[in-house]
């Protein structure tokens, strides 16, 4: 990471920093070349020895005493007047305003809509260009929260620009009346140089499927397991390796036992980027059954799917959200409808039984990631956008 102190200062805002499932944030921070990012967050998961430690301002909400009854009413009126129920208020707002003023920030980038609404009043007060960067739940399940949707719809045109990671998100914002030149499609991307292509010289005796994701409803691991059960009937030596953690883990373990797959499905929990990279190199096919879940959440940009393609793995995935931007059906992977695990099993078998097809699709996927989704190329687009607003 090499940011000159002479570069314009960027305020990088996120509610949480350092979650294993959001490695793209650290990649983005490390990739800026023309801006000097300083980070404002409410929850920091990084250690003190991390390279970003000196740039982090962490807001400790516990240090702000609850407002008395009169102040709560004042704050409620203030938020209604600003048409933003999520904007910072009270002593917390004063402290953040002091921090922003003291650092002479030239532009603000806020990750996820909730964080963007939170910092919006401060950016407007000091007339700093502010960009909201949307990713997934903030333009899907988050919209089921009435106060958030009400605030967002009344604030969209108050931002200097809106960044999205999928064409489906851009379409939704345009439908809300946001001018087209204000909405910028810039996926998170993948550092393709860090993911060398796997060795295809030997054909495996037993096909290894791999899934890497949070174990939550909309990632559809239960459908993946049911599809694998059908595959396993015809490919009894095959195995499924699942990397990630989340609230659905026990349910998935129970399902594995119910399906009698205990000796062929393996859970590894939350692991480092390096472990994921190694796992992708030893796998043959990447699988992901994302779907719109019970609260409307769906895929924004599949970072691990992009990593798998960068290694040269063919993918079997669903027609869901940003996946349609990433996978060229029949060229870099195979797609099925959401919740159709039988169709997924068919596509998994098609690839499992044809090593030449796996190789061809894997190479095509790698080429697509390098050309269209390389992280540094995406960061340069984002940085050019931010610099142009200064």
Task: Give an account of the 3D structure.
The protein is α/β, with parallel strands linked by helices. The protein is built from 14 helices and 13 strands. Helix 7 crosses helix 12 and helix 10 crosses helix 13.
- Unreliable sequence segments: none
Strands ordered across the widest β-sheet: 3-2-1-4-5-6-7
What is the general shape? globular
Largest sheet: 7 strands, parallel
Strand content: 15-25%
Helix and strand element order? EHEEHHEHEHEHEEHEHEHEHEHEHHH
Counting DSSP H or I runs of 4 or more residues, the number of helices is 14
Mean pLDDT score: 92
Structural class by SSE content = alpha/beta
* Helicity, as a percent range: 40-55%
Rg of Cα set:
22 Å
Distance between the termini: 22 Å
Please give the oligomerization state of what you see.
single chain
- Strand element count: 13
């Amino acid at each position: 990471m090499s940011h000159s102190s002479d570069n314009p200062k960027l305020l990088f805002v996120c509610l949480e920093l350092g979650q294993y499932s959001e490695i793209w944030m650290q990649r983005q921070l490390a990739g800026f070349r023309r801006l000097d990012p300083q980070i404002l967050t409410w929850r920091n998961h990084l250690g003190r020895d991390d390279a970003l430690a000196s740039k982090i301002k962490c807001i400790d909400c516990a240090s702000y005493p609850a407002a008395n009854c009169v102040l709560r009413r004042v704050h409620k009126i203030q938020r209604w007047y600003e048409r933003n129920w999520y904007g910072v208020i009270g002593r917390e707002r004063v402290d953040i305003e002091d921090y922003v003023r003291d650092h002479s920030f030239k532009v603000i980038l806020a990750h996820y809509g909730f964080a963007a609404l939170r910092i919006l009043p401060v950016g407007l007060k000091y007339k700093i260009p502010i960009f909201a960067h949307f990713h997934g739940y903030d333009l899907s399940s988050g919209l089921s929260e009435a106060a958030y949707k009400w605030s967002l719809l009344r604030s969209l045109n108050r931002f200097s620009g809106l960044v999205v990671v999928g064409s489906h998100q851009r379409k939704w914002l345009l439908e809300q009346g946001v001018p087209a030149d204000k909405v910028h499609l810039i996926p998170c991307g993948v550092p393709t140089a860090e993911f060398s292509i796997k060795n295809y010289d030997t054909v495996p005796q037993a096909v290894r499927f791999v899934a890497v994701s949070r174990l939550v409803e909309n990632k559809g691991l239960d459908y993946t397991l049911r599809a694998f059960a059908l595959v396993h009937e015809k490919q009894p030596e095959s195995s499924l390796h699942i990397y990630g953690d989340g609230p659905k883990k026990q349910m998935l373990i129970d399902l594995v036992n119910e399906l009698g797959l205990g000796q062929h499905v393996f859970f590894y929990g939350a692991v480092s980027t390096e472990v994921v990279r190694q796992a992708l190199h030893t796998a043959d096919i990447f699988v992901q059954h994302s779907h719109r879940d019970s609260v409307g959440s769906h895929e924004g940009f599949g970072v691990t799917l992009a990593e798998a393609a960068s290694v040269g793995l063919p993918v079997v995935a669903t027609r869901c959200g940003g996946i349609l931007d990433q996978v060229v059906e029949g060229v870099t992977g195979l797609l099925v409808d959401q919740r159709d695990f039988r169709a997924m099993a068919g596509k998994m078998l098609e690839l499992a039984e044809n090593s030449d097809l796996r190789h061809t699709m894997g190479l095509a996927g790698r080429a697509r990631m390098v050309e269209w989704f390389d992280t540094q190329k995406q960061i340069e687009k984002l940085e050019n956008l931010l610099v142009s607003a200064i």
